[in-house]
Amino acid sequence: MFKKIFSVLALSFLLVGCANENAKVNTEETTQKEITEEVIEKKTAQQYLAEFEKTAVYQDRVRGIDSSFLESIDFEGDEVPEMILGSNNDTKNSNVTIYKFENDQWIEDISKNYESNIHIYLESIGKLPYGDGTLKEALAFEIIEAHASTMSQSLSILNYNETAQSIEELVEIELQSTETYSVNLEENNFIVTAENGLTQNYIFKNGEIVDSSGKRVGIIINEKLAELVGTTINDYYINFTDFYYTAQRKIKENLIAEEYYEGAMCSFYETFFLCESHKESGGMHAYYITPKNKVTVDELTSIFNQTVEVVGWENEMEGGYSYTAEVMTDSGLYSLEFDGDSPESVLEFIAYVPN
Questions:
Q1: Which among 68, 350, 91, 43 has a CA at the least distance from the CA of 225?
Q2: How far is residue 56 CA from its own chain's centroid?
Q3: CA-based end-to-end distance of the chain
Q4: pLDDT of residue 14
Q5: pTM, full prediction
């Protein structure tokens, strides 16, 4: 009897062992099959582009219009590129439309329109790859507009914003009528040349625009100071040589008011304002910051790495006393206003005049 039971148990273990081995083999075969299928399904950017051109979404969109460019750009670096269609709908309207591949179909994600009173058209400049080891890319294109007696050019760069998780315009570089530009796509470099021969380099580097020294373009005030007071003035790639309306077009936040301040037309935003007051070079004269955060005299001393000496004086024009300080730096002059003259006094206003 015991022999029979032992034989049955031995057979059971043998069958279980075989079943486990078969299951293991099947699992390995399934895994290998999934890996093989995944490899087979990977496509190149050109393959995605060719497939997109055959879709009804694309064919319907370009019917009857001038398609100026179609680019395959991997903004997120996930090896599934987005399609960017630049089109000139008519002489006065151009459009950039971004399509994403989701749930096995192409869908329209973002559309941006460009208008002109006379004539406007778009041209692609090319891909701008990141240099940080990822597969992420950006796209540069040109906006060309005809005016009554002149032509204007702007260089626009589309980039993926990690914080907002969306594709946005990183910067639009508007050329003055006497400026020209050249491009070195191998180095992601745009060289703008003024009539007097002076040049400005705009280099795309890992989602930012830097100059030839590697410093981010558009830093108006000290970066640590900007972070401390909570202003966004450094976020929009404004240049010291920008005209008032050029700078205004770059700012992507709500305009609270546009009115005169000390005799000049100014645009007021939440944490700063800028005014139409030009130097001989054509740039704005000063930049004004209205602090969002509470900042004391002592904190500014550490930011500027020099003593901030506050002076109290009788303000006959406004009445009462004003408390001010001036700090000269290598980049320019900071005129500061406080609510008192003690080390704990709070900053109320900044006027910055670059050198």
A1: 350
A2: 31
A3: 105
A4: 41
A5: 0.77
